[in-house]
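As agreed, record passed on underneath.
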Amino acid sequence: MDEEGNPAVHKREKCCKCCLTNRKRVILRVTVGLVVLVVLITILAIAFTSQDPSGPSFATGGDMLDFLVQSGDISDRDGLLATWFHRANGKEELNRALASDAMILEADVTLQGYGTPNQKPIPIMAHPPNVTSDNTLDEWLDAVLESRKGIKLDFKSLASVGLSLDLLLQKNSTRGINRPVWLNADILKDPLVPGFVPAVNGTLFLELVQEKFPEVTLSLGWVVLAIYNRAMVEEMYEVVKDLPQKITFPIQSLFVRKGWPHISWLLSQSPRFSLTLWQGAVHPSVDDLLFVRDNSHPARVYYDIYEPTLTQFKQAAEEQGRLRRFYPGGDLMDFLYGAHTQRPERGKSQSVPLVTVTDRSSLSAAVSDGAGGMLVVHVAADRTQPQIPVVDGPNGSEPLTLQGVLEELSRRPASPWGLYLRVGAPELLGASLSSLLRAYSSEQLYRPVWIGMGADSPYSAQDFVSVVEQVFPHCTVVLNEASAARRLSPSLSQRLAVHLSGREAQTALTEMGTFDLILENEEFKTQVYINEQEMSKWDGPDENIYMNEGPEDTCEAEAPLPVASEGPPPPSPHRGACLCGAAAAIALLAALLSAALILLGFTWVTLNTRTKDMRASISSLTDERGLLQNSNVLMEAFNRNLSGRNWTDSRQDCEEQGAHLVVITSPEEQKFVSSLTAQRVWIGLTDRDTEDEWRWVTGDNVTSPTYWMAGQPDNWNGEEDCGESGNHQWNDLWCSVKQRFICERLSQNVC
């Protein structure tokens, strides 16, 4: 029978019509399902990417200067540009603060009725001895979060800390604080402060912060009357050295210059550290503020100073061609090649001339040379007045006193020469140091000063250092033995150098401590040549190497770049919560996309067909998810390593996981990496092999597009050879900084 008359054929055609009807129904259902999924995904995307109406998202533990740059309040990362409003406690003061141009609001937190029978567990805004206020911390935060001003909360007692941290956590969870939060407490005391004057219990304060709301900047200071000494800064360093947060140390500006040897030592221990200069009723001198400005990085010091001193200071700081108030105990290479010198490029320490002064004519000739370097003065006793230090010169020549040398240098304040005194006789050391102190106190000694033991000095290294610290600690101390330098280095605030002959240098290069090295080469030129070969291979941590071939010659070689032992704060565990939230959002979106794919797959099985448009849509979704896989992050590295690691250890950790530090080669990858955290993290970028030739850890050159911050990379102080990412941009940084890092594993889905 033909097909037209075949009942089976008619039945099949009828069935097919029925199937076509069902197919349309299924397609309709799938379409509706996809529309619902798209709506859900859109809602979730808005929920997770929406920002506070007051501005873009910013981590509470983020850098204050980064925040102010992002907000458009300042153009550069310079602490002098940040402005403050003090004691914005009551509602009237707070309203004035919010209406002002101040960028950071400082306020005091205590408990309602603190220390009275009416004490209540309600944090209020009041400065002791006040224990009442018309403003609670809850109300204060709500008002401030409508603005884009930074927050600094000052705690004078421990009682209000825990409740305040709970409020901060609540506000951050419900509406987002979206700005840096500083928590201030004076946890230590100047030894001159009477025992009955309390300090906040530092141990309990820090425990509460780490437990309740660790994503902050800590402002940790001293109750101080008159001094900052070595014992004070050492005690503080022991407290803070293992903390993950950024830390700023509030310093009374009246005492900063006198305590600078110790304060600058503390600041140098980590790039996580900064200073906040504050004042009481007495205004600091503009000269003292300029001194700090001239001896620190602009991004490392905030100036919480009152008017009119602040305006006077800013005007003086911006004055073109002013004399730099260089700290005599500072780095010679910074003196010669710092940003203020406007020299085209940084020189090498071993090309720095060390010129021996023997009389007035040699001194005049040297300081007239604009190249700069160190004037080496061998101090001897005057023949007629043995207590007066003079320059050791030829017999029969007119004696040149040390005071005469200092006076000549004071007449040439812009001459780029430092002073290196080698003092042999014990009776001359005190007199020499006293002359230096008088010149420094009268502001006539703004150049590097090295104080060294003579070759045949009877002093022990310990006795020599003790005298220097007591009389004139504002210098670099030069010893004659590397072993003594290693032994004394941990207890010194001063820079430390070792002066060695060519025979001793070979051993010293393999046993360097955290000190500079001066190599004397009067006889052993072959050995020094060998040492220069060793230097080119040596990867030491912190040293400058200077060469001296004798009274009239100089020697050139290359010094390894210093690497600081500092770093921006590794994110606290609170950041992990932020990362987990972002990861949860991505996981949820991925799950919804997967559900859509499964539904489409089911339709494929049921209907055994797809349209080209649906294939293109699914392909697009698959490619996007593949990009995330190709840029996936080893989240265990964040959670496992809360204290952070330096760049080298971060790279090794990634490799141990079968991965490498993340490589960013596209806008999509940069966006994805930035979405994981607002904090700074190590990426696989370095110019360690060749300065200014940045490469990825994979060996590939860095190609466009790049995402450097404005003015970066700048290789500040000749020390920044590793790359980090933060706030959607790159920056070059000391490789020794300990912070979080991101690993990349291209072919494996870690999540």
Notes: The mean pLDDT is 79. Residues 7-49 form the longest helix (43 residues). Residues 3-49 form one domain.
